[in-house]
User: What shape does this take?
Amino acid sequence: MGRKSIYSQEFKMKCVQDHIDGLPYSQIIKENGLSKNDLKMLRTWVTKYLRSGSSALESVSTKSNYSDDLKQMAVQDYLSNEASYLKIATKYGISSESVLRNWVLAHNIGLQTEETNMKRNEVEQKTLKRRKAKKFSLAQKEEAIKWCIDHDRNYHETADKYGCSYQQIYSWCSKAENKGIEALEDNRGKRKSQELLSSKELLLKENEQLKKENEMLRRQAELLKKLNLKGRW
Assistant: This one.
């Protein structure tokens, strides 16, 4: 019989039955056109049959879909050192050890990727909070701008070197070029003072105007009073 890439259930059962009837593996390999490399495969068929019956020998083509629950249980069994790949594959009716091995590998890679992403996100959040809370003087901003320009406007490296964010150093450079270095001065406190000062000045002017109007009215009243007195005479 010629070698097949996928063996039927009938072929597997014939080989298993031959071995159960006392035929050695070497003779089964020779009579069925197999190779010495197939010895492990023959032993796996026999083990599966003895543990789970003929249904465990169904070909991959007719038994290739596995539920997520089955995959998870099989992987957890292996990770818990319950048994070897072969025993677990036989227990859950998995077609081969390599299938289970790939599931375990994918599971471990997924955990490593998830852990790496969590650590990266944690570091990024801490860095972002630190940079947002930090205040920079005009001299520090000017130094960072100069370093950034001298290093081919590498905003990422500048941000790492001076502890600011990419957006901050980009904004500083843009403002300095368009409006001058003075535009980078932090006037948040000064603006409020200037607004208060402007309000006070406005009130003073209004009071001054009222005083002038009152004085004018007083003079007009005195003038009318004098005119009225003259008219009586």
